[in-house]
Amino acid sequence: MKKKVLSVALSAAMVASLAATMNVQAEEDLIVVGYAQVGAESDWRTANTESFKSTFTEENGYKLIFDDAQQKQENQIKAIRSFIQQDVDYIVVAPVVETGWETVLEEAKEAGIPVILSDRQMQVTDDSLYECWVGGNFIKEGEDAGNWLAKYLEDQGRGDEEINIVTIQGTIGASAQVGRTEGVGNIVKEHENWKMLDMQSGEFTQAKGQEVMESFLKSYDDIDVVICENDNEAFGAIDAIKAAGKTCGPDGDIIVISFDAVKAAFESMIAGDLNATFECNPLHGPRVAEIIQKLEAGEEVEKIQYVDESYFDTSMDLEAIMAERAY
Ligand code: GZL
Question: What is the largest CA-CA distance in the chain?
């Protein structure tokens, strides 16, 4: 009997020392993070998910529990409740829409589990329900797009022309949709010769973006500009424009502007279809890990943390820029 006990003890010691040499932390030492992701609706979302999965690894000291809500708020709420039941160390949420979160955030607070918001924001009366938010400045993205259009038209000698615009919005109620629509609207108001003919949601997807653009083209025969609230909607809109026998891009009938600046958007600009895309950096994984490390160390964290963003258009050396980008 003693020999057996001895051999078990020896093998346990060997496993522990092997783990130590391989820098693999024991399960109980890992920081457990539950991530309630929106879905997999766009190239941006894919890059955002990859950023979390490549950051929150066991070798980096984390155990990631990942949930894809397929763009449904009820699925995200279910995921948060499951994270609470599993007593994770941190809950991270990319909220599909801004409202309807108070109850489940109260439950997380009750359970003593800190919540971090990534990407989109939540509207809550008590902002102590979450530690902080990290993401894009959506209103600024919209205003930058509007100002880019004004300069582009000016440079084309169309500064005083009557300009008809349609907008394919994102998921209604999502921060990115709310902010981009507001931002573009702020600039449209500054130009009395611009007319916003129509706005409809394309749900941030290519298929719905194409469908909405098809309906716009049937309703209006004089569209000059389409604003797409993400790149995937723009890809769908471009397909619809071409199918209707019209052209788009720098020398086309319709100017196409979008948001995100994913790799496929660079390819579309290089192909001469998309005019410009306004960046919304999806690489939130490292930023959230930095926040968690600060919280672990008992440090204060900024409540609102914007990521760095830019824009890209066909006047730039897009091949060279694309070669340097991470997504
Ligand atoms: C922006 C993000 C948006 C992207 C879309 O931070 O919430 O959701 O712009 C994605 O591509 O679907």
Answer: 94
| 280 CB within 6 A, ligand 1 | yes
Range 213-223 average pLDDT: 98
Residue 170 to residues 176, 181, 272, Cα–Cα distance (Å): 7, 9, 24
pLDDT for 9-52, tens place per residue? 666 566 556 555 555 567 778 999 999 999 999 999 999 999 99
Cβ of residue 135 lying under 6 Å from some atom of ligand 1: yes
The verdict on the CB of residue 133 being under 6 Å from ligand 1 is no
Q: How far apart are alpha carbons 186 and 141 in whole angstroms?
A: 11
Cα(7) to centroid(ligand 1), Å: 55
Q: Is 176 in the pocket of ligand 1 (CB under 6 A)?
A: yes
Helical H runs in the chain?
A: 2-21, 43-55, 73-85, 102-110, 138-155, 175-188, 206-219, 231-243, 263-270, 285-296, 318-324
CB burial string 166-204: b at 16+ within 10 A, e below: bbbbbbebbbbbbbbbebbbebbeebeebebeebbbbbb
- Rounded Cα distance, 185 and 319, in Å: 32
Centre of ligand 1 to C-alpha 141, Å, is 12
User: CB of 45 closer than 6 A to ligand 1?
Assistant: yes
According to DSSP, the residues that pair with 259 across neighbouring strands are 278
Q: Summarize pLDDT for 287-313 with one digit per residue, the tens.
A: 999 999 999 999 999 999 999 899 999
CA of 261 to the centre of ligand 1 (A): 11
